[in-house]
Amino acid sequence: MYLGTTKKWGLRVRAHPRGFFPRFRRMRPYGWERARRGVSGWRWLGFNKHPLLVVAVSAAVAAGVAVAFAHLAGDGRVFGHLDNIAPLWFVVCLVAEVIAYGGYVVALRSTARVGGGPRLGLGLAARVVAAGFGAFFAASAAGGFQVDYWAFRRSGASRRDALARVLGLGTLEYAVLAPAALVSALALFFGAGRRPYPALTLPWLLVLPGFAFAVFASSPERSRRWSNVEGKGRIRSLFGHAVSGIAVLRRLVTNPIPHGGLAVLGTSVYWFGEILCLWASLRAFQADVRIPALILAYASGYVVTRRALPAGGVGVAEIALTFALVWLGVPFAPALLGVFSYRIFNFWLALLPALAVGGTMRRIREGMPQADRELARERP
Q1: Using the 8-state DSSP alphabet, how is residue 175 labeled?
Q2: pLDDT at residue 194, as a whole number
């Protein structure tokens, strides 16, 4: 027998004479839902309205991680490596990031155009990439993928098509990086390194069934049926959107001339520039790392990315990359210095091109609320 309802801490609770747990099972989490929506996207700190706050908090987090890791590595060892810097490698880092930017511009334009999609001008694509790479402070705390969505919508894509192309571009990034990581893992396992590192190498065998599932799920009839998310639940909707992104990837691969091939080439150049920047940063501090180990450490540390998380996953990315390099045989101190040097070029210097496209920044910030509302409609 129920004794009515009451409200407590924003939760509507049915009173029950048998105690707390039956009531708990019948809670309707109105208050928790409001709290979740408030916290999501860091809106509770006003980051979308105050991008400079993102810079301050990001800098504080990065500095805290750097100090903690330097103490863990031993201050003497860290300062000892600072006395033996080879600064010419930093020029290579800068050139590598320019290469990475150019590759992503090509990938973004080609992904927009494949399958009769909207035309994205070269100038707009370059400005969007600059905004997306600097999105943690200049445009949106939600990450660069939201900026890509804005660009596709502005170029004329429908809401669903823009979302599918954003997911397709993200899937393409991993579809290019994962095979390189798999080959590197196999090379290390079969003798290219000092040890086989089974904990880091063998899990990459999952790339093979992953590609097999992508081929299976992206067939035209099946992808059309599975990507329909109307009236579906949360998990089913997430699965449907993932399939729609895989379907865009299939169009890129099956239409290689010219847009599909350019998208794959641009993404490959993007990864080449990023990994080259990391390698040059390590060489600046006399760290010797084999190419398979470098690629595998980068891919293993790329669990989070500045393009997908608020503030670029600052702090987390540095920790993941440093430990991945250490596990693959790079000494702690040069690995730490090399990773933070890499993040200066790949993350913090994004300030400069983003400031150069201030007008695009303003338009993107003005369009972010609409993009948020549209993307929210895709979540049940």
Answers
A1: H
A2: 64
Residues 6+ apart with CB under 8 A from 284: 85, 86, 87, 89, 90, 93, 338, 341
How confident is residue 76, by pLDDT bands cut at 50, 70 and 90? low
DSSP-assigned letters across all residues of 192-261: ISSS--HHHHGGGGGHHHHHHHHHHHTSHHHHHHHT--TT--HHHHHHHHHHHHHHHHHHHHH-IIIIIH
Contact predicate 148/120, CB 8 Å: no
In eight-state DSSP terms, residue 349 is G
- Asked if the bond preceding 258 is cis, omega within 30° of 0, the reply is yes
Yes or no: say if 97 and 276 are a contact pair by the CB < 8 Å rule: no
Dihedral sign (CA 167, 168, 171, 176): negative
DSSP state of 380: -
- Rounded to the nearest 5 degrees, what angle is found at the Cα of 139, between the Cα atoms of 67 and 246? 95
User: Helix axis angle, 51-73 relative to 75-82, nearest 10°?
Assistant: 110
Helices 159-187 and 358-377, axial angle in degrees (round to 10): 100
What would the mean pLDDT of 318-333 be, rounded to a whole number? 88
> Angle at Cα 242 formed by Cα 236 and Cα 248, nearest 5°?
140
Distance of alpha carbon 257 from alpha carbon 255, whole angstroms: 6
The tokens of 172 are what? 């393409």
Contacts of 184-187 with CB under 8 Å at 24 or more apart are 184/291, 184/292, 184/293, 184/295, 184/296, 184/299, 185/292, 185/296, 187/292
Q: 């490959």: which residue's tokens?
A: 268
**What are 375's two structure tokens?**
């993307």
Between 109 and 241, the higher pLDDT residue:
109
In the 8-state DSSP scheme, what is residue 177?
Answer: H
